[in-house]
Amino acid sequence: MTQSADKPVDMKDIVALCKRRGFIFQASDIYGGYNGFWDFGPLGTELKNNLRDSWWKNMVVTPPIGPDGTPVSIVGLDSAIIQNPRVWQASGHVGGFNDPMVDCRESKARYRADHLLVYTNDGDIWPAFYNVEDAADIPRRLKKLKQNEDISTYKIVSFDQISADDYAKIIGPDTKTAGTLTEPRQFSMMLDTFPGVIRDEERKAYLRPETAQGIFTNYKNIIDSMRVKPPFGIAQIGKAFRNEVTPRNFIFRSREFEQMEMEWFCPPEDHAMWFEFWVDQRKKWWESVGMDANKIFLHDIEKSELAHYSARTIDIEYKYPFSDPNFDELEGIAHRGDYDLSKHQEHSGQKLEYFDQQENRRYLPHVIEPAAGLTRGVLALICEAYTIDENRPSGVYLNFHPSMAPKKAAILPLTAKEDHVPIATKLYLDLREEFSVDLDIKQNIGKRYARQDEIGTPYCFTIDNDTISDQTVTVRERNTMAQERIHMDKIAEFLREKMKAV
Questions:
Q1: Deepest in the core among 187, 286, 297, 371, taking most CB within 10 A?
Q2: What is the enclosing helix (H) or strand (E) of 484?
Q3: How far apart are CA 55 and CA 78, in angstroms?
Q4: CATH number of 395-499: 3.40.50.10330, 1.10.3720.10, 3.40.50.800, 3.30.590.20?
Q5: How far apart are the C-alpha atoms of 24 and 16, rounded to whole Å?
Q6: Helix (H, G, I), strand (E, B) or coil at 222
Q7: Residues near 276 by beta carbon (within 8 Å), at least 6 away in sequence
Q8: 0.70 surpassed by pTM
Q9: CATH fold of the domain at 11-96+193-384
Q10: Residue-range domain boundaries for the chain
Q11: Rg of the chain's alpha carbons, rounded to an integer?
Q12: What is the pLDDT of residues 245-273, one digit of tens each?
């Protein structure tokens, strides 16, 4: 039977399929991997490119219709990964992009203090857990520590909220001994580098922790060189790097990742209207690429938890298997105010105010920032698509929206007979001019169907003896496994229609 919509799958199975079918590999795999870094295989690259291209088309090529009924104006940018270090001083990253970290003297492990959960009670032993995702693991560890296994008897408190007087009671996540955890201290999230031949602190630069600052530093260049004026946006897709202490949950939290960010510059008085507009638009886009609306949650971040630059932020969150029944971040829409432009104006000495000739006034635009994780988006698409079905040989299929599927179709000659293969090859060569298709000749037809199911190919076109006589092929639909006959001349039109976003 097919899995129910609310039954979570095991992330271990998803990770295994991603490696087995060429979606995602551990970086430097033959050397044992490298924590926090991942390589995208042939199918993962296709999937990532499909998501990236859809975002770019939706933002830059055919941007949404604005509240006034006309298309909004958004231009593209590709800024350098390494910027002048003063950029990061102005943005606040050098001085403030830190997390409170806790070390374990015994295990030598390091934890974020606010992610370290301590199970407190009236006793003298308080077990600590880090980023707890599987509630079933908690009683097992409590039993090993000879503690009460009833979770309801504990009060859960993050380590950064606990008095230093009680540290001696705490057993760290990777030890059986109490009192091994240190007091929290600040740890920089910036990955640094030293361009040039001399390596000293004066020449230290940084790998960008976000793509946004390259947009802000190019704001004036774009105003001066392009026919744009507020309200307008600048969009960018690119790599970012963060010195994550504990990368986890597959590619969800890693040290190298990709972002899809757009900075929307608008008159200060219009920020509320544009904020609501972009929250609505971004949610609709995620649904258009196949995300289940019931697994998407709009999290209005409390004021006490907002980033220093944000006046308001709504996170678009998704119910990942590792977060179920809760949600975790997929994209954030933030009202950054004029924080970034004012800081760069102050530190660079360049005037970044916009002069509105019609109203004869100068102002620093406010910024609404929809910032999505491309890497996380790929993970969400795979998690959403992963479907257990005991009725098919593979036991699972990937239910990608056809527009996102790495391969749009597979061309399968029923046998390796001379009459079947040439027709299949010609069809493949014709279709590949427009679509990413697979020509799969070897093995029996059932095994080839199973393979295409596992990689998420929505349609298989089988060439058989009837094809020779009437030029029709069998179309097999991935989700239902239903089959019908279609004329070869209609295949391209058939695929074009199916590729349209919902």
A1: 286
A2: strand 483-487
A3: 15
A4: 3.40.50.800
A5: 9
A6: helix
A7: none
A8: yes
A9: BirA Bifunctional Protein; domain 2 (3.30.930)
A10: 11-96+193-384, 98-187, 395-499
A11: 26
A12: 878 899 999 999 999 999 999 999 999 99
